[in-house]
Amino acid sequence: MKDKSSLVRVVFKNGELSIDTTLKAPGRGAYVCPNADCLQKAHKQKGFERSFKRAVSHEILEKLSEIISER
């Protein structure tokens, strides 16, 4: 268990996935820890796909990787 403020939130709203930097955007959200290993594990186990019940684009995963590397 980790504090939500230390995690990266991905939101599904208006038919599109986006990264929620404010942690307050409306819509269905999923969290991932800011660690490259956690992101790889979530991608391999299809964690985002299960959370949102749809495919996650490669573009979103690249953005998540960039945000994680900045932290």
List keywords for this structure.
71 residues; alpha+beta
Oligomer classification: single chain
Structural shape: globular
Q: What sequence of helices (H) and strands (E) makes up the elements?
A: EEEHHH
**Beta-strand percent range:** 15-25%
Which residue ranges are poorly predicted, with pLDDT under 50 across at least 5 consecutive positions?
A: none
Taking the sheet with the most strands, its summary is:
3 strands, antiparallel
In whole angstroms, the N-to-C terminal distance is 19 Å
Helix content: 25-40%
Walkthrough of the structure:
By secondary structure, this protein is of the alpha+beta class. Helix content is 39%, strand content 23%. The protein has a 3-stranded antiparallel sheet with strand order 2-1-3. A hairpin with a 2-residue loop joins strand 1 and strand 2. It is globular. The mean pLDDT is 83.
Short recap of the structure:
By secondary structure, the protein is of the alpha+beta class. Helices cover 39% and strands 23% of the residues. It contains three helices and three strands.
Q: How are the elements arranged and paired?
A:
Blueprint: E1 8-13, E2 16-20, E3 28-32, H1 36-44, H2 47-52, H3 58-70
Antiparallel strand pairs: 1-2, 1-3
